[in-house]
Amino acid sequence: MDSHQKFEEERLPSIDSFESTLTGSGISDEDYRHAQTVWHYFNLKNMGEYHDLYVKCDVLQLADVFENFRKLCQHYYGLDCVHLFTAPGLAWQSSLKMTDQPLELFTDINMHMFVEKGIREGISVITKRFSQANNKYLPNFDASKSIKHIIYLDCNNLYGASMVESLPHGGFEWISTDVTLDWIQSIPQDSSEGYIFEVDLKYPEELHDLHNDYPLAPEKMDIKFEDLSEFSKAVLNGMKYTPSTKLVPNLKDKRNYITYYKNLQFYLKHGLKLEKVHKILNFQQNPWLKKYIMFNTVQRKNSKSAFEKDFFKLMNNSVYGKTMENIRNRVDVQLVNDEKKAQKLVAAPTFKRFKTFDNELVGVERVKKCLTLDKPIYVGFVILEISKLIMYNFHYNVMKKEYGDKAKLLFTDTDSLTYEVETEDIYEDMSRHMDIYDTSDYPRDHFLFSESNKKKIECFKDELHSKPIFEFIGLRPKMYSIKSERGEKKTAKGVARSVVERNIRHEDYRRCREVLKSTREIQHRIQSENHKLKTVKVNKIALCAFDDKRYLLDDNVHTLAHGHYKI
C-alpha cells in the first residue's frame, strides 16, 4: 500500500503483492486463503475497507492483550499499569511495594560520583575465533584426532540471581583506608555491612596465560590504534579507525579501580595483588529484593502460557534497569508555535539546539539547569558486580577447576559462556555436577534430563538442548555463528534479524574470517524524521572481521587479552 489509489482497488491483489519490504518475505498460501475468506465473509468492497478492518482487528486484539496485562498487574502486584509510563517503572514500583524497603539516597555528591564511576555493563568478547568439534555425537567423528566438544551455556536469570543477594539500602559513610589484607579477605559473604573499594591492583605476569581467556576486573578503555596487532591493522585495510570507550577484560594493572568487596575478595583469591586502597564506602545491606525476585521466579515456573512466562521474566529483568537510571541522559525539550517565544528560548544561555518541524512548530532543546540525582544507583552497581562474580565463579571454579587448559573459552556475552572442551564426553562430565545445571530443556529420553533445576536462577543451561555443536566462527563481539544439529544460530549486531536469517549463512562468516573482507546487506527500516514516518533503504556493513577488544594473532584464530606480557 504505497499510494492512496490502491485503497480504491475492488479486488484482493495477487499473493505476490503481499511481500513485506521490511522483512523481504511474503505470505503462505494458507495466509492468502484466509485473506480471501475474510474479504468474502465481510463482503468488502475495496482495499480501503480491507485496510480499515485489518486495523480495527489489530487494535482490538492489542486492547485485549493490554487488558489482560492490566489484570495480571492488579492481581499479582496490586498496581494498575496505566498509571505508569514504562514497564521498568511498573516493575520498580511493584518491587518497592512488595518489599517495603526504605532506600536512602546519597546526600554527598562525592559518593554518587564514586559509585557512578564504577558502573560497568556486561562483558561481551570473542576470545577464540574458530573452533571445530570432534566427538562421538557428530556424524563426521574422526577417532584418530583429539576429541573436542563445543558447548554453549547460558546462566538462568543472571540479573535475578544477582538481585537475590544482599544489596545496599542505607547507612553510607566513608571509612578509614588503613585496613589490612587479612581484614578485607575476612569480611563475611553474608555480612550485614557491605563495602565498595577504590584500589590499585597488580596483575602478575604469571597469571596472564591462565587468565587470558577471561581476565578479572574488566575496565572501560579506549583502545588506541597503536594498541592493535599488526594483523588487526591489516584487517582494517585502510579503513578509518576511531577509538571508542568499551568494557574490555584486560591483563593490565588496575589504577583507581572501583569494585564491590566480594569481587575484590575473588580477585585477590585468584592471584591479583593489592597495592593500595584509596577509598572505602561502607553501608548497610541485606537481601531486601529477594522476596520480589523469587515471587516472580516461582510464578514464571508455574505459568501455563508463553505470555505469562514472558511477563514474569520482564518484571524481574526490568527492575534492574530502573536502579541504574542515568538522569544525565534526560533532555528538556519545549515545543513552540510562537516566534517571539522561540527567539527568547534560543537566546537563553541554556539553549542547546532546535528542530523545525514545519512553518508553525519548532522544538527547542535546552540544557537542564539543575540535575536532581535521586536514583539509588548503588543498587544497580552492586547487581552488576555480583553478576560478573557469578560468571567468573563458574569459569574459574567450575570449568577451569574441572578441565584446566583443556577448556578454552570461545566467547562470552553477558550471561552466556561458550567453551571448546577436550574431554571424552561432556555430558558424562555434566552428570557429576547436576546441582549447577538446568537440563529441563533436554529431551525426556536423554540420560541428563531433569526438572529439579527448571528455571532455577544461577543454574547454567545448554542453549542447544543437548544437540551437538559442529563448528563455531566468531568475528567480533555479538557477531558469531554456531553450526549444530539444530541448524545455524547467527548473530550480527546492527543487522535486522530478518536479513540475518534470510541472507547470511554460516559459510559467510567463514569467508569473512578467512578473506578478511567485510560484507554488506540491503535492509529496510521504518524511520521517523521530524515526527514523520517513512521507509528507508539502507546498504550497511553486515559482517566484519575487525575486533579491537582483543589482540588478534597472525593465525586468525587465537587472541590475547590487552596487557598480556607476550604483546
TrEMBL record:
InterPro entries: DNA/RNA_pol_sf. GO terms for biological process: DNA biosynthetic process. This is DNA-directed DNA polymerase.
